[in-house]
């Protein structure tokens, strides 16, 4: 039975007839059956979120749209449609309204008139399924971005809708949190026959769906089974998207002449195919030469601790005796599960919040002694739109220099350099930062920090919620800036693959402490160590472990897509 039926759906942002109006949806025809699990992919600005909002009747498009048998154009049907279709947004701050976690989860069912004893059961179910039971009495504003997202999902689960539309629900979650949410989604679909529409930029999440819809420029570009859609790697790349890691590896091996299936998406399946091809008895894997990092310690934390809401019922120790040394020119990957203390640590490093005890030293000087010291430590937040406020891009980037009293010529030159560093030319100068795409906003936010010429750049989840092409562009820009400007970079990320690919050194946070601090090969090359620290294992590291268990001598450096392809090209029998 059809749950969502849309014909010739069109939607424009702006005034109809105005040249500046934007076509977000262009003659969409879509049917989603009751109980179906559909994943929606597409680059930023392709129309995914707009389409999702029509399913919940948050916006009413032109055309014919029937949700759960109800005409969405009729105002009297809106309430019933929204009762049957729950929606989780990208940014949890947009949908959390209560001051206590369990009250927020109860808000939806209360408004639906659910009996109190049933609400209690639903809240327990919802919080347990997103791993937030122990935080039920916490204040949401004191939780991490990933924890807030879990609360937002719990609030929808507690309403027990017939359909759940999730718009990038796992963008701010750690890998284990993402897996738990996906397991919850699959469980709800399996046990309660709930219709699921999942918008995601994680290809491995999309591969779990029964059906995949790919959006491009407001239209449906692809619609089919995930294996069939992902098999056309070239087409997906043209649409600025990725494919699952194993599919990409199969595609590269196929292009090198190896006889291998192209629709592989799982590690176990890939291992079986590789063993069929066969491995050489002897092969050499050449390790990449590393640039030597200077010995000069540029930033140091001494016995750093931080307690939220000290001496209150909400008291929580976020950091516990942190001692870290960061050397000039290093690229540090800061990882850990949601709520482990990563964001708190970065904000203390930048002087935004003061530690409860301990101190931060920049080149031997306490950063609390002089505000000018802190200007040498730039911080990009999780949500760059929170940092943007000026009328145009040029003024946004120039704001700090104007406050410092720099002259016009210096401002013009430094703004130009900062924007050029993030690949934004003069055509952006007069544009409003609020009219830019998610990736462009992040680049403006980075430029507004670069203009201060910091010696250390701290980035808190700089690529969360971005499409693969934009994500890759941002990462290339970060690496380029580090190499060309000689900056030290500290990057917080939940993407093990990103950190594994570009970091020099990895620091793992766990329960407010440093659980690991060292070479990335020693952490990503040891799957058991990663499990013990509550981290998810990169797909390529999982593949390497399966092959080692089959007797194949796989070097510990093989945990990235790049090194996996390099290893397999040399090790497989042709």
What can you see in these coordinates?
By secondary structure, this protein is of the alpha/beta class. The chain folds into 3 domains: 2-232, 3-Layer(aba) Sandwich (Rossmann fold); 245-277 and 539-571, no CATH class; 297-532, Rossmann fold. The chain is built from 22 helices and 20 strands. The strands form 4 sheets. A 6-stranded mixed beta sheet has the order 6-7-8-3-9-10, with helices on both faces. A 6-stranded mixed beta sheet has the order 16-17-18-13-19-20, sandwiched between helices. α3 (101-111) runs parallel beside α5 (145-157) and α15 packs across α16 (438-450).
Key features?
20 strands; alpha/beta; 574 residues; Rossmann fold; 6-stranded mixed sheet
Reported CATH architecture of the largest domain: 3-Layer(aba) Sandwich
Provide the β-strand percentage band: 15-25%
- Strand arrangement within the widest β-sheet reads 6-7-8-3-9-10
Q: Which geometry do the CA atoms define? A: globular
What would you report as the Rg, rounded to the nearest angstrom?
25 Å
Residue runs with pLDDT of under 50 for 5 or more positions: none
Query: How far apart, in Å, are the first and last alpha carbons?
Result: 49 Å
Q: What is the CATH T-level topology of the largest domain? A: Rossmann fold
Mean pLDDT: 88
């Amino acid at each position: 039975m059809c749950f969502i039926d849309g014909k010739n759906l069109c939607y424009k942002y702006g005034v109809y007839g105005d040249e500046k109006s934007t076509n977000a949806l262009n003659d969409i025809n879509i049917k989603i059956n009751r109980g179906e699990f559909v994943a929606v992919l597409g680059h930023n600005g392709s129309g995914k979120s707009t389409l999702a909002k029509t399913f919940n009747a948050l916006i009413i498009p032109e055309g014919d749209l029937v949700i759960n048998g109800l005409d969405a154009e009729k105002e009297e049907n809106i309430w019933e449609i929204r009762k049957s279709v729950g929606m989780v947004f990208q940014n949890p701050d947009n949908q959390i309204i209560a001051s206590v976690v369990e009250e927020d989860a109860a808000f939806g069912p209360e408004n639906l008139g659910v009996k109190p004893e049933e609400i209690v059961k639903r809240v327990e179910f919802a919080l347990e399924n997103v791993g937030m039971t122990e935080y039920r009495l916490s204040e949401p504003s004191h939780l991490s971005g990933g924890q807030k997202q879990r609360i937002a999902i719990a609030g929808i689960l507690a309403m027990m809708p017939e359909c759940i539309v999730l718009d990038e629900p796992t963008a701010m979650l750690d890998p284990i949190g993402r897996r738990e949410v996906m397991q919850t989604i699959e469980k709800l679909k399996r046990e309660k026959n709930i219709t699921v529409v999942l918008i995601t930029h994680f290809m491995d999440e999309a591969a779990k769906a029964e059906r995949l819809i790919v959006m491009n420029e407001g239209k449906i570009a692809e619609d089919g089974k995930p294996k069939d859609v992902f098999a056309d790697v070239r087409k997906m790349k043209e649409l600025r998207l990725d494919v699952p890691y194993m599919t990409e590896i199969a595609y590269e091996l196929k292009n090198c002449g190896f006889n291998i299936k192209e629709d592989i998406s799982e590690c176990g399946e890939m291992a079986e195919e590789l063993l069929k091809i066969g491995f050489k008895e002897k092969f050499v894997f050449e390790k990449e030469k590393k640039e030597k990092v200077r010995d000069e310690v540029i930033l140091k934390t001494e016995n750093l601790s931080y307690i939220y809401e000290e001496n209150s019922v909400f008291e929580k120790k976020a950091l516990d005796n942190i001692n870290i040394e960061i050397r000039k020119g290093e690229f540090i990957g800061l990882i850990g599960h949601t709520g482990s203390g990563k964001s708190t640590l970065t904000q203390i490093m930048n002087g935004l919040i003061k530690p409860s005890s301990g101190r931060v030293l920049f080149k031997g000087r306490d950063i609390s002694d002089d505000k000018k010291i802190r200007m040498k430590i730039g911080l990009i937040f999780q949500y760059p739109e929170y940092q943007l406020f000026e009328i145009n891009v040029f003024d946004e980037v120039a704001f700090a220099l104007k406050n410092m009293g720099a002259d016009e010529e210096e401002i013009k030159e430094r703004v130009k350099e900062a924007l050029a560093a993030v690949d934004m030319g003069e055509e952006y100068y007069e544009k409003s930062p609020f009219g830019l795409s998610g990736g462009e906003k992040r680049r403006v936010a980075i430029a507004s920090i670069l203009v201060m010429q910091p010696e250390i750049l701290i980035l808190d989840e700089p690529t969360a919620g971005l499409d693969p092409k934009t994500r890759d562009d941002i990462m290339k820009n970060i690496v380029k800036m580090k190499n060309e400007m000689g900056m030290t970079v500290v990057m917080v990320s939940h993407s093990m693959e990103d950190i594994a690919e570009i970091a020099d050194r990895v620091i793992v946070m766990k329960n407010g402490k440093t659980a690991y601090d060292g070479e990335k090969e020693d952490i990503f090359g040891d799957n058991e160590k990663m499990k013990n620290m509550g981290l998810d294992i990169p797909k390529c590291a999982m593949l390497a472990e399966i092959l080692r268990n089959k007797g194949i001598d796989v070097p510990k450096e093989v945990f990235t897509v790049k090194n996996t392809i390099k290893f397999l090209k040399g090790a497989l029998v042709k």
